[in-house]
Amino acid sequence: MAMIQVERQGQQVRKRAASYEAYLALPDDGRLVEWADGEIIEHMPATTTHQNIVIFLASLMRAFVERLALGKVLAAPLEVKLWPGGPSREPDVLFVARGGQAQVDDKRVRGAPDLVIEVVSPGSVTLDRITKFREYERAGVREYWIIDPRTHQQQADFYMRDEEGHFVPAPVGNDGVYHCAVLPGFRVRPDWFRLTGPDDELPDFDLPLAEMLADAPGLPDDLRAAYRQLAQLLSGA
What we know:
By secondary structure, the protein is of the alpha+beta class. Helix content is about 25%, strand content about 30%. The protein has five helices and 16 strands.
């Protein structure tokens, strides 16, 4: 079957019918390519805003997770085989808890990560908000973030699994801070992601990291005190 090229609001997605084996045989050249419903889906390169948010979140979360030895933080391009015979997705950022349900090897993640983050691109709105939402829910992902930096959107939505296994909205606090349920102590401000262009800057992650580690569960009191001092120095307080 010939390549089908779909263009949505300036972003192109290329699809073609192919087996999962054909997907696995693709060259490892850094492209973001997924497989679902008997099709290879090739995504066009992301915008600089998209990349900046992904790198920021992956760096901040990885630093937090590694200091507390909580598991692994990974980022696309990397195959996540959600269930045997099911779709292969490449989440922008993902967290796999130590001893969790997903298995990580050098080539892919098998099973549902504990936390998945997708940053919306102009051509991925339906994919992230409906298709992947349902897939991640079915697979058993415990927490799902959708960061939408598009002009006139600029919002962040957070979802947790309820007792019946369905994603339900997780609230942002009155102080404008979202506290991650899967990673106790990890938190973000949705207004960080309200960027208007490639020149807008995300915060230096050293300060929020120090603030989170200053009261992180599992750290010795003296180390938390050291991070508290560091946060005060970085904030100029």
